[in-house]
């Protein structure tokens, strides 16, 4: 039997081997048929491999946070529609090679929501890569310097979903815009992208120094993209321990302090008047 164990280890069927050892040790399995016990061992190996693939996809995704759908607060008023977002999480738009643009001010949750979507899509079997736009530009430059550029281009083109965070936060030079255009051109109607940006679409063009390249980049994005415009307070502010929570007094501490002082003076004045009246009543008696 040791030879069989060694063969299972060499074939890296550790899940099957663990299940066999469990069946040997526990009498619970002894009354099952050979086919039933084999099915359980194969299932254990299958689950182990699926979990390994998921871990590998999540590692390759390089997400800024490992957050799931249940971490999204849909009660915060920021223009996020729950049903729409849950439909995005199903990933049907990836099959149609569509893109998604998440727009909104700083702190409204664009990066977090993009990471949640990416995490959920990884669990569905999709390959994802998250990267900030500035880091992508730098990575492309470095890969050209060390000769790994063709390999990087091939890797980026192979992902089912490419998440570009902080899209056009910083203006792109002619060289940078050309490099980004090449990446987008390889993915155009072949694979999906998510663009998380503070910049409204009408402000994208000035962020690209070459008008021709700007036209080409926008033409490959805006026509095949679903758009979500977020608004409202910064989630960092709303979730800060120093921010008064809903149902509490939201008055500014300094203003509140002044109000307390005024109220104390009013109470002191009312007390003094009351005492004066009591003294007057006593003297009248």
Written account of the structure:
The chain is α/β, with parallel strands linked by helices and 285 residues long. It contains 12 helices and 5 strands. It has a 5-stranded parallel beta sheet. Strand 3, helix 9 and strand 4 form a beta-alpha-beta unit. Helix 2 crosses helix 3 (34-61), helix 7 runs antiparallel to helix 8 (149-158) and helix 9 (174-187) packs parallel to helix 10. The N and C termini lie far apart (113 Å).
Features:
285 residues; 12 helices
Give a count of the beta strands, DSSP E runs of length 2 or more.
5
Biggest sheet, in brief?
A: 5 strands, parallel
Estimated share of beta-strand residues? 5-15%
Low-confidence stretches: 249-262
Q: What order do the helices and strands follow? A: HHHHHEHEHHEHEHEHH
Explain the layout of strands and helices.
Layout: H1 2-10, H2 14-25, H3 34-61, H4 82-90, H5 92-95, E1 99-103, H6 110-123, E2 128-132, H7 133-146, H8 149-158, E3 161-165, H9 174-187, E4 192-197, H10 211-219, E5 225-229, H11 235-238, H12 253-284
Parallel strand pairs: 1-4, 1-5, 2-3, 3-4
Helix pairs in contact: 2-3, 3-6, 7-8, 9-10
